[in-house]
Amino acid sequence: MEFTGERFVPNSTASIETEIEHLQRYYSILDIVRNGVILDAACGEGYGVNLMADHAKFVFGIDIDTETIEHALSTYEKNNVEFLNASVTDIPLKDHSVDIVVSFETIEHIGEHEQHLFLKEITRVLKKSGILIISTPNKLVYSDQSHYQNPFHVKEFYQEEFENFLSGYFKYVDLFYQKAQINYVINCFDNQLLEILPSSETYNPSGKYFIAICGNKPNKQNISSIILDENHQYEDLLAQLIQIQHIAEKRDQKIKKLQLELEEKNKLLNQLTKKE
């Protein structure tokens, strides 16, 4: 299945950063979905459904795109999985039949009216004790600060706006952020244990994406996680920057040398002109 930018496709031309962002969201919730009946709303090509199916009792995956669902049906075959071609504003499941609804990077793809219809459908299919786990880009970071407009996004959210929107449907909303950042690690070779230490009193928690856990009972779930840079993206980028810096320094030296030569030639030309 081809990666177009609208839906993430594993093992495609998507960047390493995009792949990590998408997979981390699912890996961070695997303990939460354990033994539950799960709905992945706008599941895309099904990689998330496949991951959750190894932990959940049953996973439904719905997507509005027929080709995407056909791909999922032919790619991920498990006894506790069902893929359905359907819209998030008209979910083909019974009332109060799902323990957890998961929807990553979906809600920004539909308009404001449809967003409310989507949340109403979520609250309809969720059990009274059920929870919603939902992510969306932080408009301030994703769009405003980067001066970027994703052509597939219809309605993005700022932080307070997103929290207020979700609070209209759920009593409790716990908000997490997701971003890529440089980390300095001390770790044991035998036991991979990490403790997060504060680096600055002025550290401002914010990120490129929001992930919210919503319910009508107090949430006790923690999805905080770190993915270590096994692909050495930072080191590779740093090496590229150093190489570019060296090239720029050599260029500047050459330009300076040429300028001096030009000045000397101009002086000589002026002297010859005066003699004439």
UniProtKB/TrEMBL annotation:
Gene3D superfamilies: Vaccinia Virus protein VP39. The keyword Transferase applies. One of its GO terms (biological process) is methylation. The keyword Lyase does not apply. Residues 39-134 form the Methyltransferase type domain. GO terms for molecular function: S-adenosylmethionine-dependent methyltransferase activity. Pfam families: Methyltransf_11. Keywords: Coiled coil, Methyltransferase, Transferase. InterPro entries: Diverse_substrate_MTase, Methyltransf_11, SAM-dependent_MTases_sf. Residues 248-275 form a coiled coil. CDD domains: AdoMet_MTases. PANTHER family: METHYLTRANSF_11 DOMAIN-CONTAINING PROTEIN, METHYLTRANSFERASE TYPE 11 DOMAIN-CONTAINING PROTEIN. Belongs to the methyltransferase superfamily. This is Class I SAM-dependent methyltransferase. It comes from Heyndrickxia ginsengihumi. The lineage of its organism: Bacteria, Bacillati, Bacillota, Bacilli, Bacillales.
